[in-house]
Fold this sequence. Notes:
It holds the Pfam family Amdase. It comes from Halocatena salina. Keywords: Plasmid. By secondary structure, the protein is α/β, with parallel strands linked by helices. It has two domains: 3-100 and 209-219, Rossmann fold (3-Layer(aba) Sandwich); 103-206, Rossmann fold. It is built from eleven helices and eight strands. The two termini are 21 Å apart.
Amino acid sequence: MARIGLVVPSSNTTAEPEFRAMVPPDSTVHAARMPLEDVTADQLSEMADGAEKAAELLSHADIDGVAYACTTGSLLHGRGFDAELESRLSELTGTPAVATALSVTRALTALNVETLAVVTPYASELDELERAYLTESGFSVRSIDGRGLVDNTEIGSLTAVEAEQQVRSSLSDESDVDGIFISCTNYRSLSALATLEGYFDIPVVSSNAATMWDLSNRLGVSLKHCPV
């Protein structure tokens, strides 16, 4: 049994149900929230100030590990900020901690992905920040396709079917990539990953799948469902 802690944006409605879908029945997921309404660089930067308080509150529940479950929020300030987040949250909770952006790079590396197509719900400002982060992390980003959304509740209203459709419409069968990344912990896509992997015959990673895979490895938890 494990108690999984999540630090999430206040407007995120996807991370908790998708994490619960992956953990075994004897494990539980507990979230604390940081204020965020719109997914912009300014609001994400301000939101990070609430991470330590959220982690401290989660520690009262005697959690076994914690995830900073926000993709752009953990890559916003480039490489190094992600590891700093993990260190700070681990120190506050006394448990292993992961940050989504760094979890994604670990998952892609474990899957031997080098050339990448990225699909996001974001506006171009965040797409370019994500491209820069992934490039700095050693991946060749061949394409990045965003929906142009800023309102995080609107992102959370998207379905896994819409995520699958976006991936299919943004990539051709001959796309020169060896991996696909569906970005955003509030973009519902977990149930579409296996279908997309079968169609394109390459690894398909989402923010939530990578984060849960990374944290479960640190905790020694065997997931009942995780595509990574």
